[in-house]
Amino acid sequence: MRVETRVAAAGEGIHDAAALLAAGGLVALPTETVYGLGANALDPVACAQIFEAKARPLSDPLIVHIPSIDWLDRLAIVPEAARRLAEKFWPGPLTLVLPRRAIVPDLVTAGQETVAIRMSSHPVFQAVLAAFGKPVAAPSANRFGRISPTCAEHVLAELGGRIPFVLDGGPCRHGIESTIVLVTGDGLHILRHGPVTEEELAAFGQVRGAVSGISAPGGLLSHYAPRTPMRIAAPVEQESRLLFPQQEGSRDGRPTAPAIGLLSWSSSGEGFAEVEHLSHKQDLREAASNLYGAMRRLDQAGLDGIVAEPVPETGLGAAIMERLRKAAAR
Length: 330
Ligand code: AMP
Ligand code: MG
Hints:
The protein is an alpha/beta fold. The protein is built from eleven helices and 17 strands.
């Protein structure tokens, strides 16, 4: 069913957003990472609409955003290491996966015994949660598997006509999703790399590999993906077209070279049909905040293929490379 999607500026829209949440409705709203699609986290019927609007499988759990720290112990059992992480990084782009309490609906955890919790630092998000007064479940406000939205226009392109309300708070600061950490007795398991880096987390416990039986975005090979085929490679123009042999076209009976775009880290991109530079000064923070917008523009340029140049895999670079690998996986 098609619905009218209203967009409101952050200032005047906060009251309406909180009222919609209280009425069991959906609201798209800005966080410091990407735009989220929120519903009352304690109301499974409200949360069911998130899955519907995003066409998200019910096996993929939602992150619960809390209005204040006292909600942490009401929703989860909190080991000491998790408490220290919350003290250090909240409000901020860190999601903690912890043993759940019964108050959290099964739909939110996808039936798992853990719940993912976060406290956002975005002033607009915080204002809505303060007005609403309860936790909000909010995954990224995009169709399932696609590129996360980093501004209100992206949300409209993804979910316009499917959700009633978008709160426009301008572009997101980080531009990639929160770091997700599972805290267990033996250490910290990074389920998704993000703005809080492995190097920063190491001060709070032994950083270990993923654990089996825990679902995370890492469990899905393809995610955050443009529709245009994408490959990760050093950007040599002549070789780049060989990466997309199936895209060789023909015009007037003559073979034509495929049009290849470049998502550039440090190359000039000479010879490519389109170029998007992640950061002219090779700054990983700037690159992360530009990543999804640049991928979206390349995806809309009518290209046959996109080459993504690898970025250094330190700090935020680990999160960027994780996204690129998933975008390139088919
Ligand atoms: P999104 O907010 O759309 O970027 O997605 C949220 C992601 O958080 C999901 O894809 C899950 O993989 C992860 N997540 C949420 N809840 C849990 C949980 N209980 N255990 C592990 N991962 C979770
Ligand atoms: Mg998502």
